[in-house]
Every structure is written in structure tokens, then in C-alpha cells.
Amino acid sequence: MSKRLRAGSLRSRTVKRAGAGAALGLLACTAAWVHAVDGVSGATEARAYRSDDRPPAAQEGRVVRARERDPLQGLSGVSERTVARIPAESRQLVLVTGHGRDSSHATAALYTRPAAGADWVLAESWPARNGAKGWSADRRYGDLTSPEGVFSLSDAGGLLPKPPGTRLPYDRSRAFVASGHGVEGESLEGSFDYVIAIDFNRRRGTSPLDPVKPEGAAKGGNIWLHVDHDGPSQGCVGISKEAMARLLTVLDPAAKPVIAMGPRGF
């Protein structure tokens, strides 16, 4: 082959190799550019994800507020002042709300709550009777009013045997006999078949029959929940015999039961 032909062939191969190298370089550059663009896009998406990784309310600029607690804690017919007097550890409550300050008609309701300090839940309610002259925050012996306030319930008793399941200390005695007639002339027979002492001017941990009045005889005493005799009382709260039996089977000293009683809104 002549020198001229060999030289031409050599130049042709050199040009081809240069072209291939340039093409490879262009491909590498393109790949790097694509990778860089993808990297920027991924970082942007990551930042966007992180910036949106919040509760929807926060993203929308809303303020999430906790539900405000009912100041009456699920009760009705009472004031916040009375609710504040109910011990936080109590989990059983008998709420007696009179129809008026001077009325002898009322409603008794049993409330419970699952834990100390939680809101109250209504369990049952019954018609009730209270003092013939209504309610008094400063009750005196013989004034025919029921004492207004919050009191513990710690002792029970009655003429009849205690209902099965009774957990309050129960004093069965023949002394639980109501004789004579009520304020309106009604018979009192059977009124003390079941009683639960209301801890007003009395010593806790004793029979409801205990005569001692720690705050003096002038305030009166022996204020009980007892069987209704279809008339007003001299100061006690009367509910049906069935309701009394029900309370005796439900009230539990471990639940620190109390009674709150007074005219509606007290």
C-alpha cells in the first residue's frame, strides 16, 4: 500500500476515535446533569414533606383547644359552689334537689363516677319528700326543715334485715319503729324499715340510733334517708321502700358516698 493511502486510513481512524470519545463525554455530562436535577428535586420533595409533617390543624393555622370541662361535672340542679364541696375522692353521690326552698317535694338521684375527680353519671332517680317547711342552711330543732349541704353517708340500719349485698355497716334493731303520725296526719308505719344516716350533727361509725349530737341539741339530729310515708318529714328525706333497698345494695364505703341536698340551684 502506498504511503498516501496508509496516511489517509490513519487519519480516518483517529477522527472516529475522537468522535466516539466526544459522544461518551457528552453522555456522561448528560447523566451528571440529570442526576443533579433529580437530586435537587428529591431534596425539594423531602423539604416539602418535612414542612407538611404536622397536624392538619397546625397546617391550616387553627388552634386546637382542649374541651373545657363542665363546671357542674355532669350534675344538674346545683350550683358550682355546692359541686366544689363534694369531696374529690367520692365516687357515689345521692343528689336531692327540692322543688323550692319552702317545698316538701324533691327528687333524689343516684350519681356515680368511674374514678375520683371524674364527671358524674346519672344512674337512677326517684320522687322524694323532705321537711314540711322546706330547706334551711342553718337548721334548728323543731323548725321542720331539712338541712341544706353536703354530708357523708356512713351508717345504715332498720327494722328489717339488710338487703343482700349491703356494704354499709347495718344495725338491725326493734328500736327502728316509727310510732304516731306524720306532719299531715299520715301513718308512719314502716318508715324505718330501712334507714341510712345522713351525717348531720352525728358521730360517724355509730348506729343511726345514736343520740349524741356533737354540735349541740339545738341543731337537732337523727336526719336520715328512710322509707317515704306519703307525706312531708320533720327534716329527713323519704324515698320509696324499693329505692331504699336499691341504695343499700349499691352504696359502698370504699366509694366514699355522700349526699348533697337542698332546694334546686342550692
TrEMBL record:
**Does the entry feature the keyword Signal, yes or no?**
yes
Q: Where does the signal sequence lie?
A: 1-36
Question: Which keywords has UniProt assigned to this entry?
Answer: Signal
What is the designated name of this protein? YkuD domain-containing protein
